[in-house]
Amino acid sequence: MRSGVFDIDGTGLYHEVRGSGPALLMISGAGGDAGYYTAVAEDLANAFTVITYDRRGNSRSGGAGEGPMRLTQQASDARALIDGLAGGRALVFGNSAGAIIGLTLAAAHPEAVAGLIAHEPPAVNVLPDGDPERGFFLEVAALYAAGGGPAAGRRFAETTRGEGAYRWPADLWQRFLANQDHLFGTEWAGFGAFRPDEEALRAAPFPILLAAGAEDRGTYYARPSIEIARRIGAPWAEFPGIHMEFLRDPDRFAAALRVTATQQLTCAGGRVPELWAGAPQEP
């Protein structure tokens, strides 16, 4: 694993790079930390150059205190990382709020994206008018205003299936707790206001896959993936497990991501990369 800090307009973004082969940028959701994907990235490093990073304002990256989070800035950060670390184009995977950023990136910077897998974007504004879950972000924002990060974090965890049933890596958990004020005070409103650019996504010159976990059926963060897929005419797939299966069972999650990412890469490029198509290798 190679780690470093990539400068974007004076703000340093901590990143990690593993493996070789086609580039795969993985965008994290709430807490914005590369550590969510450590085990999955190590699993996929024999097939992809996997790039993970701490999003602006989170964990080991700079940018805290810059004011309300803008999705356009998050997309620009991802684009700059792709330019600087992947030669200008990469497959993109995003989970949760990271999927929202991935959809924003795909619409705003299609030239940088070879394919997008958007896993459980909590885009509540695509749910039907009157759906009570459209108010989820406002509910949590009110809890944060009244009781701070712990109150908002408890409610957030209560609504996320599987949380509490497995252990997070200790270092990731500590960084997440330190990121709570940034999440709920700086980023939350931007994620809650997200609406996908359906026209741009329909016109994307690369494959887009929407996905959700098998154990998350009916949740506010899984249902929007089906609706977005319908609106933009993209395929939808069921991944194994829960919202954060990459932490609970990273081997199982990596196996599903390996299949979908490989399929997208060969579909978009029209050929099998040399890494797989070359001479036989020793087992």
Architecture (CATH level 2) name: 3-Layer(aba) Sandwich
Number of spatially distinct domains: 1
CATH topology descriptor: Rossmann fold
Bin the helical content: 40-55%
The helix/strand series, from N terminus to C terminus, equals EEEHEHEHEHHHEHEHHH
What's the CATH C level? Alpha Beta
Number of helices: 10
Rg (CA only) = 18 Å
Provide an overview of this structure:
The chain is an alpha/beta fold. The protein has one domain (2-275): Rossmann fold, CATH 3.40.50. It is built from 10 helices and 8 strands. It has helices spanning 38-44, 71-86, 97-108, 136-158, 170-192, 198-202, 223-232, 245-248, 250-269, 274-277, and strands spanning 2-8, 11-18, 23-27, 49-53, 90-95, 113-119, 208-213, 236-239. The chain has an 8-stranded mixed sheet, sandwiched between helices. Helix 1 (38-44) packs across helix 9 (250-269). The longest helix has 23 residues, at 136-158. The two termini are 22 Å apart. The mean pLDDT is 94.
